[in-house]
Structures are given as structure tokens and as C-alpha cells.
Amino acid sequence: MPYQTHLAMLRDAFHKAAARGLIGMKVPGGRALVAPSMPRGYELWPEAEFIARTGDVHEAACKRAGISGRSDHVTFFSNDTVARSPIAPPWAIYPLPPAICAALIADQASFFVTISGESVTDALHAAGLTARWLVPHDLRELDASQEIVRVHNGRRVTVMRFSELARLTLELVDLPLWATAVRELLDREDVTGRPWHHFAHEDRIWA
Question: Which residues lie closer than 8 Å to 118 by C-beta, 6 or more apart?
Fold first, then answer.
């Protein structure tokens, strides 16, 4: 299945943040995106106010996404996971203006995305699968080996782990497409064990 993302929204967020200092958006699939512009934000506000405004914008974006107040939130930050992950695309190839890619590499620009477990399991249920969120509500930090969601179609079971949740958040993958790909994989008869899917034509996003 061809890879599809909402990364155009990230490009739009950075464009707006360059003028406003800070922007929050609802992303399809029950996700909240926040993009602060470090240079512009510190021009507009003292550090404490900038941090407080970022929290307020994040909460407002979560409300618009319909995930505010839930205890199954997971948030990924651009200045954390991707730079240390051998399987995540580097900032240099994100489909963003070169200046933004350079700013992400140097931590002069950043963004973070929050997703709820219910958003993930709802997408899988809508695709005709049974899914259960496995992350304990009181867990403060996800481990790289953490099992996130157990999925089955009545005949086969597979497990989503940390790296795939990171892809859903930081790459803003289209959630219904992703869930359909999981279903089609589980329906195949020529795979064994607990397989996981990949998409066709991912290079068209990054190249």
C-alpha cells in the first residue's frame, strides 16, 4: 500500500510558528501537534512565559483532537527519539524547507506530537480488527522494547512496539491507511510468526 502522511501539516505549522512563535494543531487520527519556533518565541516572550504558553497551546490542541483528559496519552518530541534511532528518517530528508530541516538538526526548531491509545485502537477496530492497548496508565516513560498494542483478526496475532508508535507520531502517518495495512498483513497466508508491515513508495515522501 502506498505510504501516506500528514507531513504537509507540519510544514504549515512551522511556517505559522515563524511568525507567531508557537502553533498547535489537530492532526487527523486523534493527534495533537505543537511546533514552537525557538528564535521567534524568545523574541516575543520571556522563557517562563514561553514554556507556559507552550503548555496552554498543547492542551488546546489536545482538546481540538478530542484526546484531552485521557490517561493513555503518549508524546514524542523531535529533539529526542529521531536523532538516536537507526530506523527513523533523519531530519535532513523530511519534506520541509531546508532551513527548517537544518534548524531541527540543530534543535533551533522543534515539534512534538501527542497521540492517545484510544485513537490507535479505534483505527484498528474500524479496520475490522481486535486491538488492546498494553501500556500501563502509570508508566512514565516507554521502553524501546515496550509492547504497545496487541492486534488480532481472529486467526493471527501481532504486536505493535515502540518504534511503530514513534512512526505514527513523528511521521504523522495517515491512521486509517496504517490500520488497513495491518489488517491486510494479518489476512495474508504467506507469512508466519508476528510480522509487521511496511509501505510501498515511502521514498516518494522522503526523496
Answer: 30, 67, 70, 72, 133
